[in-house]
Write a structure and sequence with these properties.
alpha/beta, 3 domains, binds flavin-adenine dinucleotide
Length: 419
């Protein structure tokens, strides 16, 4: 049975089991030790917001002094940073998707062997199989894997990101795409991540040592210039109640809606749709689909319970029509939702919004306070964002962190001149 149970209850229980260990996180997190968790392994729950970044940080902060909690809080902040960064540049997600479609028409030599774990590179082959088998990889393994994929096997980063996207239980449009871009040297100009055999041997405690098999020099990947960061959409003010009865639409990007501030609105019904074609268009592996559907059901039952209302859960080929029929059945004038972020659920949401609008029903978008306050700071590099996160949500109660000039964006990153 999978180690990841798609309920909020299971996520909270893992969080509580992890919190006492969080003070050792900074020293242990780089080690990938099978069967001995050195990290929280909370990502599948966080990705669907079965538990939230905010409550995760609060639990760690409530138990440890700031200097012991800092590293963990910072890693959680990376997630919000990536989400906010992609919200400013939705074109990066579209460009990536187009590249995947184009590249898969005629995959390059070496692609099939890489995804089957048949390259002969120690570590890499096992991680490819581990990903498919378990739906999860340690962060350091993800970094090594991505780096070997790009710089040793010389495969397009987009196909590697797509392989992760298909299989990761925590697969996230922002964290996955942008982490691959970070490794490739596309996120921070001149900075890429080159995996080294001695680093792999050290942090896998000798399980793998691909000495002599990895690229030892690399040039950052290059691409045409990106769009300038755009404006963020403006969320509805939860203090202003819509007129008439409202219903709540729920999707797998936020499955603890009852913990968000929706201004005391009382939905007359909850809708949880599963678009039939989504899994095949995204090429999600069976366990990803099963996990997501079960998580959606868990979120929907809790929302219905929280507002003492009915939940309609439905598989449908036409989400827009299904939403209109549901809203009409309940006499709704407005549907409310926490808006999905850039990715496939947002594409579906905007189509649904158009169908509802044609039927004279408004769709009002809300955003969590955490995102509203932090996303504006995610336009540039991580450290200005982190400073904003500390100031707004994670106040320091001990020695201040090092100045920006002394901080490392990640361990092991090497500076290279882009080609
Ligand atoms: C190539 C590559 C692809 C990745 N793809 C994804 C992805 O699709 N989804 C995803 O959630 N994370 C992704 N990550 C980030 C990171 O590897 C995972 O979040 C982390 O390994 C999850 O394990 P954990 O819950 O034990 O993390 P912990 O180390 O315990 O951290 C706690 C939480 O903080 C967040 N977090 C930690 N590190 C990062 C990071 N570097 N970037 C963003 N968020 C972070 C996650 O939500 C995580 O659950 C990727 C990293 C790389 C290098």
């Amino acid at each position: 049975m999978s180690d990841f149970v798609p309920t909020r209850e299971a996520g909270l229980s893992r969080l509580h089991a992890f919190v006492p260990r969080a003070s050792r996180y900074a020293e242990e997190r780089n080690y990938d030790r099978p069967g001995v968790p050195t990290v929280s392994r909370l990502s599948p729950w966080l990705q669907r917001r079965l538990i939230t970044e905010e409550e995760t940080c609060a639990a760690v902060r409530a138990t440890h002094p700031w200097n012991q909690a800092e590293k963990y809080l910072q890693e959680v902040a990376w997630r919000t940073y990536w989400k906010g960064w992609l919200e400013h540049r939705p074109g990066v997600w579209r460009r990536y998707g187009e590249a995947v479609t184009r590249l898969l028409e005629s995959p390059p030599a070496g692609y099939a062997a890489a995804v089957r774990g048949e390259t002969g590179i120690p570590g890499f082959d096992d991680w490819a199989r581990e990903l498919v088998r378990t739906g999860w990889l340690h962060n350091h393994a993800r970094m090594w894997f991505a780096s070997i994929w790009i710089f040793t096997l010389r495969l397009p980063w987009e196909l590697g990101a797509d392989f992760f996207w298909r299989h990761l239980l925590d697969g996230d449009a922002a964290a996955n795409t942008l982490s691959w871009r970070w490794v490739a040297g596309l996120h921070t100009p001149g900075k890429l991540y080159l995996a080294r055999a001695d680093n792999i041997a050290r942090y896998t405690e000798g399980r793998y040592c691909p000495e002599g098999l990895l690229a030892t020099t690399a040039q950052a990947v290059v691409e045409p210039p990106l769009e300038e960061p755009g404006k963020l959409w403006t969320a509805e003010d939860p203090r202003v109640a819509p007129e008439g009865p409202v219903g709540l639409w729920l999707h797998p990007e936020d499955l603890s809606v009852e913990t968000a501030n929706l201004g005391g609105l009382t939905p007359a019904g909850v809708l949880a749709l599963w678009p039939e074609e989504l899994a095949s268009t995204q090429q999600w592996a069976g366990p990803v689909v099963t996990f997501t559907q079960a998580a959606l059901s868990d979120g929907a039952s809790r929302a219905a319970l929280a507002w003492d209302t009915e939940c309609r859960a439905e598989r449908t080929a036409e989400p827009g029509e299904a939403a209109v029929a549901w809203a009409r059945g309940l006499g709704l004038r407005t549907v409310i939702a926490l808006r999905p972020m850039v990715g496939p659920w947002l594409d579906m949401a905007t189509e649904m919004e158009a169908s509802l609008r044609r039927a004279g029903i408004a769709l009002r978008w809300y955003r969590r306070e955490w995102d509203t306050t932090l996303f504006p700071a995610a336009r540039r590099g991580f450290f200005p964002f982190w400073d904003a996160a500390v100031r707004l949500h994670l106040p320091i109660d001990g020695p201040a962190p090092a100045p920006e000039s002394e901080r490392q964006e990640e361990f092991g990153a090497v500076r290279q001149t882009p080609a």
